[in-house]
Structure to design on (584 residues):
């Protein structure tokens, strides 16, 4: 990097005012990592009380109007596509032209494309930029982030994304980030159910379940899910790293967007829906196999 | 290790005569690793021509009678439970009392238990000791090996197993090795189908499939299968690391032994059976999703 480029880069970093909307399990640590990366970040959450305890670590505001004021880049990570849609139509009215809006919610690819086109009319650049890696990844700044939208906008926010994630991949045109995320969830869907079925099988045959997990993770059955959610299934620890209600949302979006029929995806969505434990973590699918 | 223990250990290594039955994709490299570990190994394969080319690397014999002669420990890795059963009833007639027989085929837990009890009558100690890690693991000596049977026999063969595998786990009583292996295959079954479904989804939406695999393996969807079989699915490389015919055998054994119903396992077995491509590698399941 030449001294001149470096100067402009630094200047960019110093001048940019960043807004962050969404202080949940994922959003809060992500905003904090952005702050730790040296950026001027302001955090807003619909329920102010949830972020108030962090005001010594990051600037927090009570209203959306305070948040959007003068911001060059705004990150959003909320719950559902309906919330993304409502939020973005608010933002279109309030954000200054030229700003970049980066939605990190896992949401609908069709909606991402529609908002991208709508944003264009307001001279706003939208990126769809969902993440994976769970709460751990959000806390440690090791998320995997997949981005769709204009490449120039992507290159501008890339240094900021690097404070939150380890692997940042530009997937091409608007909506491709969301499509990629759904493909990712399709892998996890089958994977986590397979782990639950294997633990159930091992339990039915009175195997040592901790040894069983060691074997699974020592060979060609190894996976991030088996390493991280396997032990929680064995312990019956269903504290959400990732909520079932959000996972079901993702799986339904994927079913809604699928071309070729994907029978395993359809079956896993049905298993989670039948379990009906929306506020537990995804590992609680093991409960679907426990004879009560 | 005291000098005395070391002397006995060395003496044990030098004196022990090892037989190895089965020179397939897995068996051949496993026998070669045992040989490289300093053991006196003789290899036998039903079809002699397949192992003849390796006679400069390992001692090979043409008949089962030559193989069993004077052996202290015999490893077996053949195709199907029916072959295991036929082979072991031959071995019971021919092997000298006191020997240890280690079956590394993935086979039926029920059969393992039955052969273990039958072997006892002939003063033979049987271990069921299937492996995972694929052809790569067999070649590199990094297999995961799970063992059921008497713990004293396990401790005796442990140094030999260490030449073939990285993670060796004693699972308890006879048949527990096979049960563990089936649990492991249950994980892989759902995992590999999930990867095929995700690649299909990504392809239907015109994503860059290599980037998609990078994203999958960079976060919480990561798995050995996605890293090793994902790229083969994308390339259409169906060369068998692990044959579909052997995988279907494993899945049917698991279905046969399951207590609680495991719907994903049942569905994956049906998908592989319907695909009907027995001599391709397991990654060829992606073909089930390609519109011809």
């Amino acid at each position: 990097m030449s001294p001149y480029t470096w100067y402009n880069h630094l200047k960019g970093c110093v001048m940019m005012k960043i807004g962050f909307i969404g202080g949940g399990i994922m959003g809060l640590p992500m905003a904090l990592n952005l702050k730790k990366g040296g950026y001027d970040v302001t955090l807003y959450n619909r329920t102010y009380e949830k972020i108030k305890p962090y005001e010594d670590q990051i600037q927090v505001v009570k209203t959306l109007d305070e948040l959007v004021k003068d911001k060059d880049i705004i990150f959003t990570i909320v719950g559902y596509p309906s919330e993304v849609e409502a939020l973005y139509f608010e933002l279109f009215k309030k954000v200054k032209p030229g700003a970049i809006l980066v939605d990190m919610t896992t949401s609908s690819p069709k909606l991402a494309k529609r908002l991208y086109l709508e944003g264009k009319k307001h001279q706003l650049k939208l990126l769809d930029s969902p993440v994976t890696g769970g709460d751990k990844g959000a806390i440690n700044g090791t998320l995997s982030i997949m981005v769709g939208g204009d490449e120039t906008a992507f290159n501008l926010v890339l240094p900021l994304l690097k404070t939150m994630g380890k692997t940042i991949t530009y997937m091409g045109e608007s909506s491709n980030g969301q499509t990629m995320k759904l493909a990712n969830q399709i892998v996890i869907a089958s994977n986590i159910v397979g782990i639950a079925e294997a633990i159930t099988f091992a339990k039915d045959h009175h195997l040592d379940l901790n040894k069983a997990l060691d074997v699974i993770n020592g060979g060609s059955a190894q996976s991030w899910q088996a390493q991280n959610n396997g032990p929680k299934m064995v312990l019956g620890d269903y504290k959400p790293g990732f909520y079932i209600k959000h996972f079901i949302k993702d799986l339904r979006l994927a079913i809604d967007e699928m071309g070729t029929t994907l029978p395993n995806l359809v079956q896993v969505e049905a298993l989670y829906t039948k379990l009906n434990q929306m506020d537990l973590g995804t590992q609680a699918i093991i409960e679907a196999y426990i004879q009560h």
